[in-house]
Amino acid sequence: MGYGESQQDAERTPRPENVPADLVHDLDHWNGPDYLADPIGFWDDLRGPYRVFWSPFHGGFWCLTRYEDIHEAFQRADLFSSRITNIPGREVRLLPITLDPPEHTTYRRLLNLPFSPARIALLMDKITDRSNALIDDVIDRGEFEFMDTFAKALPTGIFCDLLGLPHDEVKKFLEWNYIILHVHGDAEGQERQRIANEELGTYLGDLVAERTSRPHDDLVSALIPLEIDGRPITRDEAVSMTYLLFLAGLDTVTSALGWCWKFLAEHPSHRQQILSNPAIIPKAVEELLRYHAFVEDSRTVTRDVEFAGVMMKEGDRVMLPTSSACRDEAEFPDALTVDFEREPNRHIAFASGPHRCLGSHLARAELHIAMELWHQRVPDYELGQGEIRYHGGAVVGPDCLRLTITGVPA
Ligand code: HEM
C-alpha cells in the first residue's frame, strides 16, 4: 500500500515524554517507500547521526543502529524481552522464540540436537539433489525469475524433507508464509493474515495429531516424544515449535539466496573469485550475509533503564536491525565493501545471545551447496529486465529478481 503524507500523519503516534524531540525519525519498515527502495542500505546514513532514534510508526518504537548496542541488547534478555517478536506485535507464545531465559533455555535445549551440524550433515545429499534439479529447470531458459524458481523452491523442498511435509502442497505453504510474514497494513491485509494463521495452525495441529498416532522418520515425529521437566511435551507445544520452524525456516534462506544472487549478478569480479577458487565459498557466504543481514529483530523493555544514551521505559518497543549492525564501520572496517577475505567477521546476521539462530547450520549448508553447484554449472549471469521489488517487515528481501544466464560451460 502506498503512503500519502496525510495517511502517514494519521498513523503517527504522538511522541512520549521520555523521547527527546531531536531523536524522532520516521521509519515505516513495512510500507515506507523510502525504506522499501533499499531496505538494507537505508541504515547507512542513519548510524552516524543517530545512535538510537524513535519512530512514530506502528505504535512508536526505539531503533538502535550500532553494532555494539545491538549486540549488547541481544545478550541482555533481562532488559530486552522476546515476548513480542515483531513491530507492531502482539503477545503470542511461539516456542522457543517468545520465551526469555531461563524458560527459553529448557525449550531451546530440546531443539539443539535436531539442528546440530551432525544432523544437518545428513541432509547434504538432499540439498545437492534438489539444487541440481532446480538448476536443470532454469539452465536453458535464458532469462527467468530467480526468487520463485530457485530461492523459494530450494529451502521449501528441504524443509518439506526435514519435517515430512508433502511436496505437492508447497504452493499453499509458501502462500501462508508470505501472508503471515509480509502482508501488513490495511484491514483487508490483517484479515488475510488472521485467516492464514488459523489455516496454518489447523494444518500443523492435524499433522502433529497424525504423527502422534503414526510416527514417521521426520522432525515432527521426533519432537512429539520429547520431555520437559520429566513430562512429555503437550500437543500445543509441539504445534508451536513446528509453527515457528515453518516461519523461520522457509523465508530466511529464500531472502539470503535472493540477496546473494543479486549481488553476484551485479559484481562479476566477486563471481570470478568464486569461480577461480570455490574453496572461498564459506567465507563468501559469511561476508554476503554480513553485508546483507536482513532480519530486523525487536524486543520489549522490561524495566525503566538508560540504554544507548536514552531513557527507555518499561514496555517500550525496540528494534534491533541486524542489517544496520552488520554494516557498522566501528566493527567492520570498510563495511560497505564486500571482501570475501574479511577477517575477523563477527557478523550478527544470525543474531547473538540466547536466541541466536537455531537453523544457522542448515542455512549455511543450503547456501554453500547452492553457491557451489550453481557456479559450476552457471558461471555467467546478470540482472534481467525489470525493477527489483523488496518486501519489508521483520525479514526483508527481494520479492522478484529476474536473472539472465549469459553463458554455461559447453
Ligand atoms: C540465512 C538464513 C537465516 C537467518 C539470517 C536467520 C536469522 C535468525 C535470527 C536473526 C534469529 C534471532 C531471532 C531473535 O532473536 O528474535 C533467528 C532465530 C531463529 N531461527 Fe533463524 N535464520 C536463518 C535461517 C533459519 C533456518 C533455516 C531455520 C530453521 C529451519 C531457522 C530457525 C530459527 C529459530 C527456531 C530461531 C529461534 C531461536 C530461539 O529463539 O532460540 N533459522 N534466526
Query: Rough shape?
Result: globular
Q: Average pLDDT across residues?
A: 93
Instruction: Please identify the structural class as seen in this structure.
Output: alpha+beta
- Find the count of extended strands (DSSP E, 2+ residues): 14
The biggest sheet, with number of strands, parallel, antiparallel or mixed sense and barrel status, is: 5 strands, mixed
Order of helices and strands: HHEEHEHHHEHHHHEEHHHEEEEHHEEEE
Q: Helical stretch count?
A: 15
Strand content: 5-15%
How would you explain this protein's 3D organization?
The chain is α+β, with helices and mostly antiparallel strands and 410 residues long. 46% of the residues lie in helices and 12% in strands. It is built from 15 helices and 14 strands. It has a five-stranded mixed sheet with strand order 1-2-10-7-3. Strands 4-14-11 form a three-stranded antiparallel sheet. A two-stranded antiparallel sheet has the order 5-6. β1 (52-55) and β2 form a beta hairpin. α6 (124-138) runs antiparallel to α7. It is globular and about 65 Å long. Mean pLDDT is 93; it is low at 1-6. The structure holds protoporphyrin IX containing FE. Protoporphyrin IX containing FE (HEM) is lined by residues 82, 85, 96-97, 108, 244-245, 248-249, 252-253, 256, 295, 297, 322, 349-351, 355, 357-359, 362-363.
Question: What labels describe this entry?
Answer:
410 residues; alpha+beta; three-stranded antiparallel beta sheet; 14 strands; 46% helix; globular; disordered N terminus; binds protoporphyrin IX containing FE
